[in-house]
């Protein structure tokens, strides 16, 4: 089985381009309506959907297109856009390099409750008035991107921040006081980084809490208040996402995947996978390949 296709640069013809935006209807026309195969990027993607019909698959979860939606795809996520007809909206991509060059701290992106690297990544559904504001920002970005304006990428960066801040405000679960929010965002960022480095060996909330020098209860309360799920649920989602990727995009056996993900017994991995997906690893693989 071939590995998942990975786009490492935003534009293969312009290696120094770290930002891009295009209208979805133009992309559809360019591809003659052909559906791209599942793939991943080494950069961030934002889909601003005015109206569309079809589905968007992100890490093997399917979300139906409609109107006034915004999708956020983090680096490394496997996704596929399947349109039944020409969509209307924007596809925007940017890299960490773009953030650095335009004075946008990477910690700002990581503190947002938008790019859900693992587990469910449903679209943000906006009211018409709120979506119109985002759409206006996107149109301004398109004008700048296609212009020769001085410091245009710095201006684009400013509009990008406005879009992300507006979206984050719309999906805030439990806004905190400013000083708590800052420390909470730092804690969540450090926790996510720790999980990403250790999830193949460590599955317990207690381990990560000890690494962060806090109690498991404090970690769970802060994470749930900001993200809407417990720390344990996030760890489990990270394991399940990796398992799905390995099952579909590698030739490893269930037993090999179990050991690679830190399960001492393959049966424990199968039970864990079925509990969270309602399918055995083998049935999941057969379904997705079909």
TrEMBL record:
Domain HTH araC/xylS-type: 189-287
Pfam families membership: AraC_binding, HTH_18
Keyword Nucleotide-binding among record annotations: no
Keyword vocabulary terms for this entry: DNA-binding, Transcription, Transcription regulation
Protein's organism: Flavobacterium flabelliforme
SMART domains: HTH_ARAC
Keyword rRNA processing included in the entry's annotation: no
InterPro entries membership: AraC-bd (IPR003313), Homeodomain-like_sf (IPR009057), HTH-like (IPR037923), HTH_AraC (IPR018060), RmlC-like_jellyroll (IPR014710)
The protein's name: AraC family transcriptional regulator
Source organism superkingdom: Bacteria
